[in-house]
Design a protein that fits this description.
binds NADPH dihydro-nicotinamide-adenine-dinucleotide phosphate; FAD/NAD(P)-binding domain; five-stranded parallel β-sheet; seven-stranded mixed β-sheet; elongated; 315 residues; 7 helices; alpha/beta
Length: 315
């Protein structure tokens, strides 16, 4: 690549969920002239949800994709340069950070804000894909409310599944927890909570074969992987809680991560182990994972980047 095509930036933001766009709003207003690369899924995980009813400031609720459109427009209003491209590679060796987009465009940035988010893991069934947002969801806290008084199923056996199953049990008439083995990996206390919830039934050694329905969930067909016995559960909601995967692969080897590949940040701050590289949102938070918390950490990352650039005499 010739020197000519290298672009020099003060602040690059990678990712376009609530964290990335909030960082962009703050960075633009602080005159950092940020460039934001949206990645493959502009707007992030919220674009695959329906109504968002728990984001403060929207008393009537808002559709996830519309909310992300609002975030984007607010960033654009203050001059963020938004590019609908993927960042593919980074090199954080020097004080100036090198980044390459999927088209090979090379960027040198003083500050980099990582807001690449996480992706829910799915079972991989065709019917799951077809009925996504039509009764299939990966977020009980976001969508459980729409199934109040109804019968639902949830797949998973970790802390998330246990937590979400008990959360759903408070809203729903009955919850079926589908566990693929004969034990759960959730913590003991969460398992106790599951076992002590009267309207929550655990189905051991149970896998989902198909989600039934055309425009909404009308039931699921499950199979016991020990006996081979098949049965149908009459549920109207189907939740998947089999873990999330942070979108952090390209930072491996550069940025310190937890065992589960979430980026390590200094507690209460957005600093990573690399000076001038900040992380926010679901790429570094596997605990809260809410739009509002992601937006909050996006703000923190932009403020930390601004202070860093100012201390270095760059702005
Ligand atoms: P985990 O990776 O811990 O658990 C995923 C679960 O999904 C496993 O039980 C796994 O089953 C199951 N699973 C995976 N693939 C399939 C499949 N195809 N079909 C059926 N089941 C499947 O993810 P979590 O999101 O639960 O937790 C992530 C991390 O966050 C953990 O460290 C957890 O402790 C933590 N956490 C903590 C909370 C808290 O402290 N309050 C709350 C929520 C999460 P198997 O066991 O058979 O592999």
């Amino acid at each position: 690549m010739s020197e000519k095509s290298v672009e020099r930036l003060k602040c690059l933001i990678i990712g376009s969920g609530p964290a990335g766009y909030t960082a962009a709003i703050y960075a633009s207003r602080a005159n950092l002239s940020p460039v934001l690369y949206t990645g493959k899924e502009p707007g992030g995980q919220l674009t695959i949800t329906n109504d968002v009813e728990n984001y403060p400031g929207y008393p009537e609720g808002i559709m996830g994709p519309q909310m992300m459109e609002d975030f984007k427009n607010q960033a654009l209003r203050f001059g963020t340069d938004i590019r609908y491209e993927l960042i593919e590679k980074v090199d954080f060796t020097g004080p100036v950070h090198k980044i390459w987009s999927e088209t090979g465009h090379e960027i040198h940035a003083d500050a980099v804000i990582i807001a690449t988010g996480a992706s829910a893991r799915w079972l991989g069934l065709e019917s799951e894909q077809k009925l996504m947002n039509k009764g299939v969801s990966a977020c009980a806290v976001c969508d459980g409310f729409f199934f109040r008084g109804q019968e639902v199923a949830i797949v998973g056996a970790g802390d998330t599944a246990a937590e979400e199953a008990t959360y759903l049990a408070k809203l729903c008439k009955k919850v079926h927890l589908l566990v693929r083995r004969d034990e759960m990996r959730a913590s003991k206390i969460m398992q106790d909570r599951v076992m002590n919830t009267p309207n929550l039934e655990v189905h051991w050694n149970t896998e989902t074969e198909e989600i039934l329905g055309t425009d909404g969930v009308e039931g699921i067909r499950v199979v016991n992987n020990k006996s081979g016995e098949k049965s149908t559960l009459d549920v109207t909601g189907f939740f998947v809680a089999i873990g999330h995967k942070p979108n952090t692969e390209m930072f491996e080897g550069w940025i310190d991560m937890e065992e589960n590949k979430y980026i390590k940040t200094v507690p209460g701050r957005s600093f990573t182990n690399v000076e001038g590289v900040f992380a926010c949102g679901d790429a570094q938070d596997h605990v809260y994972r809410q739009a509002v918390t992601a937006a909050g950490t996006g703000c923190m990352a932009a403020l930390d980047a601004e202070r860093y650039l100012s201390e270095k005499g760059i702005i």
